[in-house]
């Protein structure tokens, strides 16, 4: 039985074409950022002074790019089949409204898989940033629970989507709504919470070394730029997820465009973070920089004989270097 609830103001055929255009533009940007990411990685491998344990993060970038390529390819195929190849009754609209169509199901798989991998990488970065603190287990507990909840909603959404066999748009099908809304809300909260905790940790280290930074403007600049990298890059993906929640609640077919865009933005966001840090936008991230910083602290301690204050800076300053390094490495460099 049909349960079609398409938005008359934005028919699904138009929505799918707009979604293809939006994702194609975003994919073009994704290609550029991914190539830059590869180029920066190869340069990094050739530089013996740079940490070499960056392959896990590069692997995530490759996987996200592969998923983005698959999704935009499936999007193109779906539009070609609906508008050109299919000659049955009701035209392209009947194809797009076939909820359990294998293309619809697989595109939902790519979208959920992309977000799941991206969020897992974010949690991993959060774990590394807080691993030296006694509360690190508590800090990552809530993000992990949110990630598990979002994954469960994604699995239920895909399972239901593949078995409904109804003629309806995805945002118009009431039975999908609890899982879709739950998935997007938990993903949104996870990204905001994890990014906020990372920024809080970096700023906390900066605040704890205020006295040291007064005589070292480079330290202040790199902390500020590190925070900006996380906030600016994460903001792209977070906004797309927020809009997806809104259009889903409004039962608008604009959902197709925003959800397709989110697939590419997950990879773009990840690429931007590692490109900017690997290129040293924040500051040098090598163990040599940590050693030179500590030598400067020792010299100031001997000259001014301010043992207490200098020792405190000395204990915290390597953490700042480590925070920058572990953003893209496995946390074992620069110890």
From TrEMBL:
The chain crosses the membrane at residues 20-43, 55-77, 137-161, 181-203. This is Uncharacterized protein. Keywords: Membrane, Transmembrane, Transmembrane helix.
């Amino acid at each position: 039985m049909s349960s079609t609830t398409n938005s008359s103001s934005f028919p699904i055929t138009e929505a799918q074409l707009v979604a293809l255009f939006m994702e194609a533009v975003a994919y073009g940007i994704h290609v550029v950022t991914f190539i830059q990411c590869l180029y920066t990685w190869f340069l990094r491998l050739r530089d013996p002074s740079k940490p070499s344990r960056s392959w896990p993060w590069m692997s995530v970038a490759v996987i996200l790019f592969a998923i983005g390529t698959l999704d935009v390819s499936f999007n193109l195929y779906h539009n070609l089949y609906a508008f050109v190849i299919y000659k049955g009754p009701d035209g392209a609209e009947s194809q797009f409204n076939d909820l359990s169509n294998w293309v619809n199901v697989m595109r939902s798989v790519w979208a959920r898989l992309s977000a799941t991998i991206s969020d897992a990488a974010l949690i991993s970065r959060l774990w590394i940033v807080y691993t030296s603190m006694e509360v690190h287990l508590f800090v990552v507990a809530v993000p992990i629970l949110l990630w598990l909840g979002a994954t469960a909603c994604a699995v239920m959404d895909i399972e239901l989507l593949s078995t409904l066999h109804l003629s309806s748009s995805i945002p118009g099908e009431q039975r999908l709504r609890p899982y879709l809304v739950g998935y997007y809300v938990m993903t949104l909260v996870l990204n905001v919470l994890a990014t906020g905790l990372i920024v809080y940790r970096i700023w906390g280290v900066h605040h704890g070394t205020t006295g040291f930074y007064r005589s070292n403007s480079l330290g202040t600049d790199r902390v500020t730029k590190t925070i900006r990298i996380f906030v600016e890059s994460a903001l792209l993906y977070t906004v797309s997820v927020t809009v997806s929640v809104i259009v889903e609640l409004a039962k608008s077919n604009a959902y197709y465009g925003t959800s397709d865009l989110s697939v590419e933005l997950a990879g773009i966001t990840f690429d931007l973070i590692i490109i900017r840090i690997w290129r040293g936008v924040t500051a040098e991230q090598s163990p040599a920089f940590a050693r030179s910083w500590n030598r400067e602290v020792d010299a100031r301690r001997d000259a001014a004989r301010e043992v207490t204050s200098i020792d405190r800076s000395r204990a915290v300053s390597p953490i700042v270097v480590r925070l920058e390094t572990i953003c893209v490495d496995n946390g074992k460099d620069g110890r």
